[in-house]
Amino acid sequence: MKLRKVTAASAAVFALALTATACGGDDSGDNGSSSSGGGGKIKIGIKYDQPGLGLKTPQGYEGFDVDVVTYVAKELGYEPDQIEWVETKSAERENALSRGDVKLIAATYSITDERKQKVDFAGPYLLAHQDLLVKADSDISEATDLNDKKLCSVTGSTSAQNVKNDFAPKAQLSNRGGYSECLSALQNGQVDALTTDDSILAGYAAQDQYKGKFKLAGLKLSNENYGIGVKKGDTETVDKVNKALEKMVSDGSWEKAVEENFGPANYKNERAPKIGQLVQ
Known about the structure:
By secondary structure, the protein is of the alpha/beta class. The protein contains nine helices and 13 strands. The chain has helices at about 10-25, 65-75, 95-100, 115, 160-165, 180-185, 200-205, 235-250, 255-260; strands at about 40-45, 50, 55, 60, 85, 105, 120-130, 130-135, 150-155, 170-175, 195, 215, 225-230. The strands form three sheets. A five-stranded mixed beta sheet has the order 5-1-6-13-7. A five-stranded mixed beta sheet has the order 10-9-11-8-12, with helices on both faces. Strands 2-3-4 form a three-stranded antiparallel beta sheet. Helix 5 (about 160-165) links the parallel strand 9 (about 150-155) and strand 10. Helix 2 (about 65-75) crosses helix 8. The longest helix is centred in the first third of the chain and has 16 residues, at about 10-25. It is globular, with a radius of gyration of 19 Å. The model is unreliable at about 1-30 (pLDDT under 50). This is Glutamate ABC transporter substrate-binding protein. It comes from Streptomyces heliomycini.
């Protein structure tokens, strides 16, 4: 998809970008509340800045989350050119759904008990784990190896602090404004490792400029069940999305999307989760 190879979903989404440029945005305010496309649009929230998952590029939108929710939208009756992508940052996801700004959100959205008080989830469609990204020649293989080492994560994330609290009390934490800054620091030897979800790490490591320079430690420091967020109480949509995800897994499209988005980073992904069942 991507920084690696273009899929049919990406090509279709690029066609949407061209259409939007020529015709302007949809001013109807419809977030896709109807049960099928029917000539309307559906607004879907994604991340714009996560390679391999949700990334806005000059050519369109790409990433595993984009592939998954494009497939789902198709099953709901919306062609790719009926999707209106909306940037949905982590802090705004619940609000975007409750206000009706979007119909669905697929944005590395981990299903938690706290979040389920505010939104409903379909899925999970990916089981990720907190992991470490290190240089390809690094001898760091366990979280405990980070004692007296410098560990990078982004400001506002709890990932690095979790490692320090649970595994490496002597780790030196180095927070940066974004993952790209952590990658640069890792490449330059200013830090020894970067931590967050393995799916996010794999997406960054698979970028052309980083191929072969980094590796995942392959740890499972937490379980992160990614789900598709839906407005609280919209059980009909949850059921339809779950059926679409089950079909995506059964027809091989899910595995293909994983390989195309994360394969270059040698991401050892978990098997597709059983829809409706969380891994604790």
